Backbone:
């Protein structure tokens, strides 16, 4: 008579299990919050807001974050945080603000524009600085991003280390946490308080990106081994030259894949970090021809200033076919493409010369002896001598009912590199495989 009904026992045990699970969850949340708060409390004296001031008004032009990395007052941040001071030193100056409200002047002493890093120096070091981790975290490991979002004060954002981002030419750590404006240049720490990355960008929805800590260590090593009298413009130019040499050596030494496009064969994805997309448009009242397109791009930019970036590579192919397409119509299309074309990086007229272009007719050594009209345009970087943006467009001119247009853009390349790329580009296309 005193025996418990099986159903009541099941309900009682289920309720007990739910209560235990809830208590464990609450305890874990409290421990997590305490750990996050502990990270901030332990390392807050090494953290700074970095402010770019317009010298005439002394008003803030932009803000970012930074952190102390040596006993002599050396701080790390992103290059894009301090770029206006580097490129326009007469118009902007740099200061820091500590979590305690102390302020002081900063000087930019070294940069790595390819990895978006900068070292700045303050006169009075603090009592504490951060150390770089000797190894990268394991995937799934908890890490902590610190920074000053939207000028609201220094915060800690916990997240997960997800390894290097796939299909990217420049090394970036994928961080599953929120990096907001103002946090750029802040440190990301492991549970031991060691630097494992630097905040750099976000794609929203808990997708952040970090510069790996080994890139920061390389920059620190360069500065400490130098005479501390670095000419930043010369340093930037050499970084751009070295980067484009490495990139194009990798591209030019590969066999370029071909993919079909209409009656032609064009260039596909040369490397995993170059992404291609296709599209097709049928004839309609406004378009008397069918158009099939294949466009490929390395879209990762190297930020130099708010009105100047470099680094992208793109190439695009359009197959045009129509019963009524004639030579006159083709030339109209060709001129329209040329008029709207150009490298797809942002360059202010103060940073580069006007385009200089050269036209030529070329008979290809294919089975059809296809005749190509090619236009090669280049503009020179004013401050970084020997580097150019290049725009190239070529198209068939001896077909009335079908045509292939091909073009590419390169940014920040040397002349020899541009010429080698042009030759390989033309040789890798089957213009008319009829």
Residues:
């Amino acid at each position: 008579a005193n025996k418990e009904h099986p159903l009541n026992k099941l309900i009682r045990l289920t309720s007990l299990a739910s209560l235990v699970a809830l208590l464990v969850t609450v305890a874990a949340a409290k421990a997590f919050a305490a750990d996050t708060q502990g990270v901030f409390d332990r390392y807050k004296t090494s953290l700074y807001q970095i402010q770019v001031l317009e010298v005439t008004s002394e008003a803030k032009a932009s803000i970012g974050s930074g952190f102390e990395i040596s006993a002599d007052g050396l701080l790390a941040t992103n290059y894009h945080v301090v770029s206006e001071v580097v490129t326009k030193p007469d118009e902007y100056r740099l200061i820091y603000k500590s979590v305690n409200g102390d302020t002081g002047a900063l000087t930019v002493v070294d940069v790595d524009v390819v990895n978006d890093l900068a070292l700045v120096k303050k006169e009075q070091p603090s009592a504490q600085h951060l150390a770089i981790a000797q190894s990268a975290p394991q995937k799934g490991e908890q890490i902590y991003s610190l920074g000053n979002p939207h000028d609201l004060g220094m915060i800690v954002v916990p997240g997960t280390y997800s390894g290097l981002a796939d299909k990217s030419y420049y090394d970036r750590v994928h961080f599953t946490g929120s990096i907001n404006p103002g946090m750029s240049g802040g440190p990301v720490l492991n549970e031991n308080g060691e630097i494992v990355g630097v905040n750099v960008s976000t794609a929203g929805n808990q997708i952040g990106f970090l510069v790996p800590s080994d890139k920061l260590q390389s920059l620190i090593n360069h500065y400490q081994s130098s005479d501390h009298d670095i000419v930043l413009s010369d340093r930037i130019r050499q970084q751009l030259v070295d980067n484009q040499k490495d990139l194009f050596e990798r591209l030019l030494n590969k066999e370029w894949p071909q993919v079909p496009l209409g009656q032609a064969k064009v260039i596909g994805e040369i490397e995993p970090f170059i992404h291609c997309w296709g599209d097709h448009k049928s004839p309609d009242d406004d378009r008397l021809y069918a158009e099939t397109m294949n466009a490929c791009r390395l879209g990762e930019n190297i930020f130099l200033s708010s009105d100047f970036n470099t680094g992208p590579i793109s190439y695009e192919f359009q197959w045009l076919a129509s019963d009524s397409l004639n030579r006159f119509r083709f030339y109209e299309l060709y001129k329209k493409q040329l008029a709207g074309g150009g490298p797809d990086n942002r360059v202010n007229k103060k940073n580069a010369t006007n385009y200089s272009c050269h036209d030529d007719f070329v008979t290809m050594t294919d089975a059809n002896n296809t005749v190509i009209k090619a236009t090669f345009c280049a503009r020179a970087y004013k401050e970084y001598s020997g580097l150019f943006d290049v725009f190239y467009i070529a198209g068939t001119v001896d077909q009335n009912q079908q045509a292939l247009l091909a073009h590419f853009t390169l940014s920040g390349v040397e002349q020899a590199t541009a010429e080698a790329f042009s030759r390989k580009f033309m040789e890798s296309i089957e213009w008319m495989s009829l």
About this structure: Residues 24-34 have pLDDT under 50 and may be disordered. The radius of gyration is 28 Å.
